């Protein structure tokens, strides 16, 4: 039983950053932006989360700074891809590398360390113990005592689905991706819808980053997003942006993450670390098989 | 050509200006910093030789990305292909015992084989299952990263070492060094010439280029797109693998953890900023290498951390690419205006 709850908890904490970033990505997906900058936004979020938490001695400021940091990346993306109409792919690649360079540079500049920064002064985001639920046998260990961001993420899933499919903004968002000229001619500038979608993406990636550096672990290390942004991009593409599908896929990836940790007893950790990426490839395989069936 | 030159140079100048502003903001001396940066990378025999040597992996991965992007496939797998190439060359160098004139070419071929094998996986996934190479190559990068890490931690681990690394390869597999100049530059130039010739003078290269520009037109013209796709993936993988092999054979002569550094991603950036042009890839590769080489001296003289260069590189890419589009519009406008004026006269 212990292994089982451990696996589920590992799945949840593995899925959370991917899910948040993928939900951000789904907004830009619907707005018709080829956004591959989630990786960079998440990394910036993770760095600024540690920065804020360390300097203000408060995890709340950490989350705020993470959001601001990721928003900064989103603003650069907006400046180049939306305003100056630079190629989105190019902007995304440059932004990811910019985030990698900038966080490494700033870590050295501000904390005077290389590789990783950990300090007892960094306040992690607390786990929330729900009084009544915690007493429920077995389920209590899963439903209660998760990180605050985990609960927030569940809310974000519902909210995203609601915003995208049930509100006027969501309709315009989908229109911006589906047929931008007709949205423009109806009097709603598609550029501003795109801008908003990127801002939302920045906020969610900031949260994802904050979870990585203040929830999953309590430190910042160079390139700590480690391809999670790419996995979240794969998740978005796999389910054509549907938030519910993304939640499911992210849990699947999270599961492989937890599974990898479990398998570490039986094989070298390098192989278990590969598991999420191999799972992504397998998921892509099933996606393409289905896509082919749909066509036929 | 002139346009490209103008947009490139003005872009670089603007990027350096932005870098200077950031430095001023942090209380550094921009002029002194840039002075040190280029002093330690361009002026003098040793700095120049070092810049040349360091440019090899950048230019080769850059060429790999340029050829891929210009021909259609979005091969972003250079990091993984580089690592696999390096691993293949290392393993060959550990177990083969041949005279230098034979071992060096064999190791170079092995490294190309390693890279091509890894890009071949992505190519096959695309060909058989129609899986987008854009994501599969990225995932394969991570897998290659962990796989090579495992390989140097267990099967090929140097027992006398404290951190994961292989023993040194056979002395006969070391690339010769003449004075300050490392012969890896010659291999790079050879690879560049071959790729340039194939890309611009052979039918195959013509087909790749046409497919990259307009795959529908290419297909209607009778070009076998699927076959070309696989070829381009294999060739670009081999280029990235070669970069990895050269890193091992010219530098530490063994596979250490973190060997690939950021070479391959820098190469992708170089291809992007060069707009997939081969000459431009070479020039930007040299420029990026100069910045990276000089950064050590810069850190020594002015205390600006070396990582600042990574930021500057990304800024350069963004500014040059954004500026390119903008300048094109500007040029077209002036030409149109001039024509309009001529007509009224």
Q: Could you characterize the architecture of this molecule?
A:
Chain A is mostly helical and 296 residues long. Chain A has one domain (2-290): Orthogonal Bundle (ABC transporter involved in vitamin B12 uptake, BtuC). In chain A, 76% of the residues lie in helices and 3% in strands. Chain A has twelve helices and four strands; from the N terminus they run ααααββαβααααβααα. Chain A starts with a helix and ends with a helix. Chain B is mainly alpha-helical and 345 residues long. Chain B has helices at 2-25, 30-39, 45-71, 78-95, 100-129, 133-153, 184-201, 203-213, 215-220, 225-250, 263-273, 278-302, 308-344; strands at 177-178, 181-182. A two-stranded antiparallel sheet of chain B has the order 1-2. In chain B, a hairpin with a 2-residue loop joins strand 1 (177-178) and strand 2 (181-182). In chain B, helix 12 (278-302) crosses helix 13 (308-344). Chain B is globular and about 80 Å long. The mean pLDDT of chain B is 90.
Short descriptors:
heterodimer, A: 296 residues, mainly alpha, ABC transporter involved in vitamin B12 uptake, BtuC, two-stranded antiparallel sheet, 12 helices, globular, B: 345 residues, 13 helices, 2 strands
Layout: helices, strands, pairs:
The complex is a heterodimer of chains A (296) and B (345).
Chain A: H1 2-30, H2 38-56, H3 59-83, H4 88-111, E1 116-117, E2 127-128, H5 139-143, E3 146-147, H6 148-166, H7 168-178, H8 180-185, H9 190-216, E4 220-221, H10 228-238, H11 243-263, H12 269-295
Antiparallel strand pairs in A: 1-4, 2-3
Helix pairs in contact in A: 1-6, 1-7, 1-9, 1-10, 1-11, 2-3, 2-4, 2-9, 2-10, 3-4, 3-9, 6-7, 7-9, 10-11, 10-12, 11-12
Chain B: H1 2-25, H2 30-39, H3 45-71, H4 78-95, H5 100-129, H6 133-153, E1 177-178, E2 181-182, H7 184-201, H8 203-213, H9 215-220, H10 225-250, H11 263-273, H12 278-302, H13 308-344
Antiparallel strand pairs in B: 1-2
